[in-house]
């Protein structure tokens, strides 16, 4: 396991764990390594002195893996209480899943009472919602770990 200190072009730093240098390169080239703060895919690695020496059970490693990013144990050098607060805000929303575009429209057009929701939408759906004047925010994956 190789641990890299990573940095995006906006100078946000975070940590990524990879099976090998080649694994990092492949994931970065596929756009799977992204800044957890600004979602930038232009990432540079800086070697770290940290080394994982023990083998963890597969279930633990799988539970810690960030979806679609291959990054484990993300550390953004942001105060942990700030990240906890952000995750609490996300958890306080209702997960409507793939019904997000439909629910967002119903709320926007006052067909149903307003409430905080989260869910999934394709890039085409996000664009259509935005064109309709519906405010939404794309959530970085690291905020969703505990909100599933």
**Sheet having the most strands:** 3 strands, antiparallel
Instruction: Tell me the Rg in angstroms.
Output: 18 Å
State which percent range the strand residues make up: 15-25%
Mean pLDDT: 75
Strand runs, count: 5
The topology string of helices and strands comes to EEHEHHEHEH
Overall geometric form: elongated
Range of helix content: 25-40%
Distance between the terminal alpha carbons, to the nearest Å? 27 Å
Strand line-up of the largest beta sheet: 2-1-3
Category from helices, strands and their pairing? alpha+beta
SS summary, helix count: 5
Low-confidence stretches: 50-78
Tell me briefly what this model is.
By secondary structure, this protein is an alpha+beta fold. 31% of the residues lie in helices and 20% in strands.
Describe this structure in words.
Helices cover 31% and strands 20% of the residues. It has 148 residues and is α+β, with helices and mostly antiparallel strands. It has a three-stranded antiparallel sheet with strand order 2-1-3. β4 (94-97), α4 (100-108) and β5 form a beta-alpha-beta unit. The chain is elongated. The chain starts with a strand and ends in a 17-residue tail after the last helix. The relative contact order is 0.15. Mean pLDDT is 75; it is low at 50-78.
